[in-house]
């Protein structure tokens, strides 16, 4: 390739004419390059049609307000769209109260057809030049905004509102109750409820992540890696109710008089001269016993996710660290852990939120004892006895406890982005 030392550009419309001169020869080489024009697929914003965007936004606002108003009327006991005590046409009866399998299938088909129709309309308008870009954005985001507003924001607001109301034994609203519901929830078990919840939120994600990470490192690239990981991941595939029943017999399985103990934990205690006992009755022994079950379940998830992250660590980084003298624990601590830090944060956050929402294990193994209770189980129990005020207070407290976990997740993600 010739050594080209001087370059002169002369713009002309959409082209640039470059004159390239070789110092070793007297000849001149002229080359004309064409600047790429604007891609044909780029959509131009039509002028004068912004009113369409405002109209679509107003329609979405009216739909959200109407759905929230209907939900509020239903909450206060007012029947608007459908009243089961009155007679309606066959279509409304099928739509709001399907009784047969055929009617349920028809309602499902109608819902799918409505979704397909809306999406087809949006996709049809994408290539229409007269439709503003803002209208297309609202068209795509509109269904999501409606779903989030009606399915998430409004129930959250209603739950907070209910947490300050008083209800009778039949679930009827008796008026304002202040912070009495929160005081009642916090007083259950003399504070054991909050202590148990905090223990679940902090101990389960820490130990499940540590066990999963250690196991992922130990079995990484071993001969029987798939089989070893399958054994650890198996508890994750078991339902929490089934796992609770299994571990309930591990902790306490009383045998008839004169026969050997069949519970594993009590069998070990008996072998060392102790007497069998129910491990799920006393506080805080019962809480730690149930936390072990949740760790056993979540360690498989942590192991699988972290193992994939470890395998994604670039080999050149590891080789460079080894050349610099890093090996063993130092290599793991200085290279592997910082590289998989975003995955670690995701695993810890996911397991913490799952632990905060777990009520299956406590409900099956805890025997509904106040000393074993956590907020999620208290929420479920209050809902079953038609006490939305106490249930709402439990839900709000769950949200308050999960906020630090979310803040931790966001801060760690920002640190990871800064490192990159």
From TrEMBL:
One Gene Ontology CC term in the entry: plasma membrane
InterPro entries cross-referenced by the UniProt entry: MetI-like (IPR000515), MetI-like_sf (IPR035906), UgpAE/MalFG_permease (IPR050809)
GO biological process assignments: transmembrane transport
Superkingdom assignment: Bacteria
Pfam families: BPD_transp_1
Keyword list, A-Z: Cell membrane, Membrane, Transmembrane, Transmembrane helix, Transport
Primary location class: membrane
Localisation: Cell membrane
PANTHER family per UniProt: BLL4140 PROTEIN (PTHR43227), DIACETYLCHITOBIOSE UPTAKE SYSTEM PERMEASE PROTEIN DASB (PTHR43227:SF8)
Family to which the UniProt record says this protein belongs: Belongs to the binding-protein-dependent transport system permease family.
Protein's name in the database: Sugar ABC transporter permease
Organism: Nakamurella endophytica
């Amino acid at each position: 390739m010739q050594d080209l030392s001087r370059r002169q550009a002369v713009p002309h419309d959409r082209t640039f004419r470059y004159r390239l001169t070789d110092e070793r020869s007297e000849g001149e080489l002229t080359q004309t390059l064409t600047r790429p024009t604007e891609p044909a697929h780029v959509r131009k914003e039509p002028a004068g049609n912004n009113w369409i965007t405002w109209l679509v936004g107003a329609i979405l606002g009216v739909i959200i307000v109407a759905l929230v108003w209907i939900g509020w009327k239903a909450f206060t006991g007012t029947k608007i769209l459908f009243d089961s005590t009155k007679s309606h046409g066959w279509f409304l009866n099928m739509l709001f109260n399907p009784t047969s399998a055929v009617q349920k299938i028809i309602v499902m088909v109608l819902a799918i057809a409505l979704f397909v129709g809306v999406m087809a309309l949006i996709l049809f308008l994408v290539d229409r030049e007269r439709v503003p870009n803002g209208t297309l954005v609202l068209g795509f985001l509109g269904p999501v905004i409606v779903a989030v507003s009606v399915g998430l924001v409004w129930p959250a607001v209603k739950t907070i509102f209910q947490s300050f109301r008083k209800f009778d034994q039949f679930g009827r609203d008796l008026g304002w109750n202040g912070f009495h519901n929160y005081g009642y929830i916090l007083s259950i078990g003399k504070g054991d409820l909050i202590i148990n919840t905090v223990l679940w939120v902090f101990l389960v994600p820490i130990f499940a992540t540590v066990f999963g990470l250690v196991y992922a490192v130990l079995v990484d690239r071993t001969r029987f890696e798939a089989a070893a990981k399958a054994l650890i991941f198996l508890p994750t595939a078991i339902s929490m109710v089934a796992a609770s029943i299994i571990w309930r017999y591990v902790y306490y399985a009383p045998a008839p008089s004169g026969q050997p103990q069949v519970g594993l934990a009590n069998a070990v205690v008996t072998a060392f001269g102790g007497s069998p006992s129910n491990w799920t009755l006393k506080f805080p022994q019962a809480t730690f016993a149930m936390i072990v079950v949740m760790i056993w379940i979540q360690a498989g998830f942590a192991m699988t996710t972290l193992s994939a992250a470890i395998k994604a660590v670039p080999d050149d980084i590891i080789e460079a660290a080894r050349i610099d003298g890093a090996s063993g624990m130092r290599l793991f601590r200085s290279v592997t852990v910082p590289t998989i830090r975003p995955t670690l944060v995701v695993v810890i956050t996911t397991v913490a939120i799952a632990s905060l929402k777990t009520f299956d294990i406590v409900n099956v193994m805890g025997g509904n004892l106040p000393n074993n209770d956590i907020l999620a189980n208290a929420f479920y129990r209050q809902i079953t006895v038609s006490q939305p005020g106490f249930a709402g207070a439990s839900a709000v407290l769950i949200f308050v406890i999960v906020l630090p976990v979310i803040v931790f997740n966001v801060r760690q993600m920002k640190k990871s982005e800064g490192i990159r």
